[in-house]
Amino acid sequence: MSAQSYNFDAKKSTISFKVTHMGFLTVKGEFHNFSGKFTLNNDNLEAIESNVKVESIDTKDKTRDESLVDKAYLNAGKYPYINFTSTNIKTTFNTNTLTGILKIKNVKREISMPFELVRSQGKEEALLKISTSINRKDFKLNFGPMDVFIGDHIKIELKILGIDNL
User: Fold this and answer.
1) pTM for this one?
2) 71: how many CB neighbours lie within 10 A of its CB?
3) Closest by alpha carbon to 148, among 134, 157, 139, 136?
4) Is 50 exposed, middle or buried (0-12, 13-18, 19+ CB in 10 A)?
5) Spatial CB neighbours of 163, under 8 Å, sequence gap ≥ 6
6) Residue 52 — left, alpha, or beta (φ > 0 → left; ψ -120 to 50 → alpha)?
7) Predicted confidence (pLDDT) per residue in 72-95, tens digit
8) What CA–CA distance (Å, rounded) separates 153 from 100?
9) Strand intervals (E) in the chain
10) Which comes out higher in pLDDT, residue 148 or 84?
11) Phi and psi dihedrals of 146, rounded to 5?
12) Which of 13, 16, 46, 141 has the greatest CB tally within 10 Å of its CB?
């Protein structure tokens, strides 16, 4: 079987996150505007690349969302996208690990995360599930005077439905 490319179906996919606030509250959010593709070869993930539009952040609080895309935090005017490109993928009997470069605000860091891949019977769709956590300070995501109230770790969950390009 040859390699197959799958485009992200943003309408049926989710990119969500959680971060603690004040030590006991959890702020949840999603990004609604993103694109990307992944390549499978013989039912194995071979590569993935994605772009997330920063301005599409949605925490169900418009004032907070505007603050997050502002110059002081994510600076969507200067850095409109969060990018990820895979560099290595390991698949073993019981563990799948995706490694790549995550770029937020022009700060690039290598991250590794476990993933699960599920294919439809006809192989025209594939679902990629990823759960991971990043340290926001690794990407210089600071809140100034409010920084002490925000948890260091951002939990990220992706459920990406890919549609075969053919």
Assistant:
1) 0.91
2) 9
3) 136
4) buried
5) 6, 7, 9, 124, 125
6) beta
7) 789 999 999 999 999 999 988 888
8) 18
9) 4-8, 14-21, 25-31, 34-41, 44-53, 57-58, 81-91, 96-104, 107-119, 125-135, 150-164
10) 84
11) -85, -5
12) 141
Rounded to an integer, the average pLDDT of 115-123 is 83
- Look at residue 40 and tell me whether its pLDDT is greater than 80: yes
Which of 21-30, 67-76, 106-115 is modeled with the greatest confidence?
A: 106-115
Lookup: tokens for 48: 């993935």
Question: Confidence band (pLDDT; 50, 70, 90) for 1?
Answer: low
Structure tokens, 15: 């990119």
> What domains sit in the chain, N to C, each tagged with a CATH number?
4-164 (2.40.128.110)
Amino acid identity, position 107: V
Please calculate the CA angle 101-38-2 and round it to the nearest 5 degrees. Answer: 130
- What CA–CA distance (Å, rounded) separates 8 from 35? 6
Task: Specify the higher pLDDT residue, 68 or 51.
Answer: 51
> If pLDDT is split at 50, 70 and 90, which confidence band does 115 have?
very high
Other residues' Cβ atoms within 10 Å of the Cβ of residue 88:
11
Rg, Å, the chain Cα set: 17
> Where does residue 132 rank: exposed (0-12), middle (13-18), buried (19+ CB within 10 A)?
middle
